[in-house]
Amino acid sequence: MARTVFCQKLQKEAEGLGFQLYPGEIGEKIFNNISKEAWAQWQHKQTMLINEKHLNMMDLEHRSFLETQMVGFLFEGKDVEIEGYKPV
């Protein structure tokens, strides 16, 4: 049976992640408070950000920027601003 969590992003009970996908304290917080659905939304935004800003995941500053965006999106109700992108 799937694990459910109260998703802080979607503000509803939803299917939780199968395992911790992100390291450390933030990863634990995501695992306990973010649903699969919200994580998928973040993955979509993250891909767009990496592509648009030409982020290099080997660069610590780029990873730090992405982590800040992720926390804002998942826990603080902030949307990810992607230049030139207009939702349809």
UniProtKB/TrEMBL annotation:
Gene3D superfamilies: Fe(II) trafficking protein YggX. One of its GO terms (cellular component) is cytosol. GO terms for biological process: cellular response to oxidative stress. One of its GO terms (molecular function) is iron ion binding. Keywords: Iron. The keyword Iron applies. Pfam families: Iron_traffic. Signal peptide: none annotated. It comes from the Bacteria. Belongs to the Fe(2+)-trafficking protein family. Could be a mediator in iron transactions between iron acquisition and iron-requiring processes, such as synthesis and/or repair of Fe-S clusters in biosynthetic enzymes. Necessary to maintain high levels of aconitase under oxidative stress. This is Probable Fe(2+)-trafficking protein. It comes from Pseudoalteromonas tunicata D2.
